[in-house]
Amino acid sequence: MRAISLLVIAAAASQLGSTDCGDHAIKDDGFDLWCGDTLCDWKIERGMIQDVPTWHAGDHGVALVGDDVAIEQVSPVASSDGTCIELDLMANVDANVDAVLNVDVFDDGVIDLVEHLPTGTWAPTTFQMRMPDNYAGVRFEIAKTGTGNAELANIGATVLKTGGCLGQPAMQIANRPLAVPCDDSAQCASGMCAPNPVISPESASDVCVACGSNSCGSGDVCGASRPVSPLRGDPIECIAAASVPLAGQCASDADCASGICKSHMCSTCRSDADCGSGETCDVAWTDSDTFIDFAPYECAPGARRRASGEPCVTNNDCQSGQCDGTSLSTCWDGRSCATAADCPYSELDQTTCTLVGVQGGSCH
After folding, report:
1. Is the pTM of this model over 0.90?
2. How is the chain split into domains, by residue range?
3. In angstroms, rounded to a whole number, what is the distance separating the alpha carbons of residues 207 and 64?
4. Contact 54/153 with Cβ under 8 angstroms?
5. Which of 18-32, 59-73, 257-271, 310-324 has the least mean pLDDT?
6. What is the CATH number of domain 7-159?
7. Where are the beta strands (DSSP E) in 185-249?
8. How would you label 94-125 residue by residue, b for 16+ Cβ within 10 Å and e otherwise?
């Protein structure tokens, strides 16, 4: 764990609350949105919280109730947004309490920066932190230990485009997990930084990977496994050859049970030449433009031409009207999901998880 002293700037009384300019990196920075007895946009890690009045009776905030309490929020803020983040907060922290802001870059469970919140009664404070030159995603955690009060009116995080973090060195994050941006192999826990094979060439970037084309054992291939965080894409690691079912994400043909990886989805065709007479090779589901670029390809999708036992991804592929397999819901980027919490973000909101068809299906 690295504890880094941040630049502390006294905030004028007229500037209470979150900043008004720039890009905001925290949702509900004033702790205003409650879903019953918990915050809608903050997750309780441990302990209890309570909706309380703060420096003004009309301004409510959150109290961390108990001797060991923590809440967190994952933010999609990335180096493409900016590398200087300004955090401004107003808190009521008793002297016998240790209240901290923990910053976990990449949301990998490793705290990369710790800042102890000052004690005092509703004293506004502003911090600036210089992020790594190449990062994607941050988990902000507010934690409290001790028997006294720790209450917050707000904690805003604004990405400063110019003029911020002057003189501060960039945070250096080593031991980066798979599927996060990297500049060189020394930054990765795997010891390997390479171009991402599961995104289009025009947006390609280097990410931490666990294998190369010839580094896996017999029967395995260096392929795409399932993302473990909405902030990251498919980890590239050794997987069993031909183990990814139809409609799963893939890095190459070798990943897929069908032997065809098209547009990074395991498919049954690559072009019309792979199909029967009068059939075309097209995306499997087209009811929403959201999924056009991230759907498997098959011959005559939705035309009810597939006989019993033939591969399918929707019921309308089959003559019987029934495609047997595992129900498949996906995010906009094609990854499988159970709920929206598995999906990448659009600004500060996670995108939808939509039922689209069947994975590894065959016609009844």
Report:
1. no
2. 7-159, 272-364
3. 37
4. yes
5. 18-32
6. 2.60.120.260
7. 193-195, 206-208, 220-224, 236-240
8. beebebbbbbbbbbbebbbbbbebebeebbbb
